[in-house]
Structures are given as C-alpha cells and as structure tokens.
Amino acid sequence: MNLIKFLDEFTSENLAKKGASRRDAFSTFSSLGKKAAIAAVPFGMATLSNKAKAATMFQTDDAVGALQLALTLEYLEADFYLKALESNVLDEDVSGKANAIYEQISKHESAHVTLLQDTLISLGETPGTSPQFDFTANGAFDPFNTDNPDAYVQLLALAQAFEDTGVRAYKGQAGALMGNDALLTAALQIHSVEARHASEIRRLRELQGWITLNERGEGMPAATQAVYNGEENISQAGVDVTTLGSGSPFTAIASSQAYDEILTGDEATSIASLFIAS
Length: 278
Description:
Ferritin-like domain-containing protein; mainly alpha
C-alpha cells in the first residue's frame, strides 16, 4: 500500500466524532495500525520527490553537515509549534496545559535555530535556509484546522513523532562532531532538552515518558513506525543487556526502555521529507 494513499485513507476515517473523548479518539486512531500494517514503511518515498531532495542536500559525514541537518530539523519543529499556537486548536484543552507546554517548547526550538545558525556562521559556513513545510503531508493531516474534529489528536501525535525523531537524530550525529568539544557540547545540550520535550509531549498524551521496544504508543498511525524502528535493540556495547542480572527488571521490555537508539542522517531525512514541500 502506498504511504500517501494510506494517509489519505487514514484522514477519511471518522477518528474522533464531535463530543467524543480524546481517549476514545486515541483508541480509534490506534486501531488503524492493524488495518494498515502493510503501510508501516519509512516516511521516505521509494523515489525521491523534490521535497525529499530538498531534505537531502546536506551530507552528514562531517561536523558542518551534521549541524545543517540539525538546523533543518529545528526549522521543522520551530515552524510546527508556531503554527500550532496560531491555530487555536490547542484551546480544546480547557485546562490550558497543552497551550502552555507548546508555548515553552516553541521558545526552545526558536532558540535552537538561532544557536545553530550562529554556530555555522562562526565556522565560516552559510546556514541552510528553512524549507517550506507542509504539515498536512500532502493533505493527509489537517492539524491546524479548528473545524477538523481530529485536529487536536493530530497535533499531539505529530509533536511526538517530531520530538522522538529529533532525539534519535541528534544522537546519530554525535560521531560527526567528535574531536570538536565545543560543537559536541552544544549539540548535547540541545539533545537533552529535545529529550525533555519528547517526554513532556508523551505525558500530555497520557503515555509513559519513554519508548518501549519499537512501539509507537497509543494513537500513533502505522505510518510513523520509521521513527521507532530499531528501538527494540537489547544489545549495548556488544552485551545482551537482558543478561545483566536476573529477574523481571532485566526483561527485554525494561532493557529497551533503559537505552535509546540512534537514527542515521538518511533515516532522519526520510522522516522529515514527508513534511517538506520545497
């Protein structure tokens, strides 16, 4: 099944009828995973579209390439949170908690963009410009439309996917920054905050703050599976971590939760490319 075809079908489903609880919406959202398991392919298309090419302009085998990739991801997140706040969709949470969280994360992402731009300039490089983003994924989602009964659910699901991608992507680029303590330190400082964002969004969605095996979590469509592939790994530094002792604390589930895995530059690019228009 083609990914975009699946996403189009996904949005045609009646995920959250007016008056239904968000928990009911999450449950219905999640049920699509069984129906569309065959569509659980990476975000990247089989052939590169123009938007994918825009995302792959940066080589990630050196420090500059790693910073440029990080900047692209930060552009995506910064733009997403600004649009989310402007949309008023978060007003569905009458407690105001969601809006407050998105406001704070938005400030963080804007600060990250500025830091990465300034760092690249200090290296004598020209920071990449922000792509044009399409957070509907070619019409598959409609997260900023207050007339869309699924908008709030989609806003939170997309935020989780973006934050979990960011955490794994920063970790994946650490090797390219080895040997430059200043750049590595700056990247790690951003990485830890992105991890806090990911946990906060998960808590907002009434989920655990960490990733279990390669599970997307309740309410995440099958199309987001690429964000979580590989998280089921239980081998760290060549050691099967389920053997480090005895008893239930060392099960595969607990062990997978105790360690996060990387995303390569290509994997992160494939995920981001679905939301890059040009």
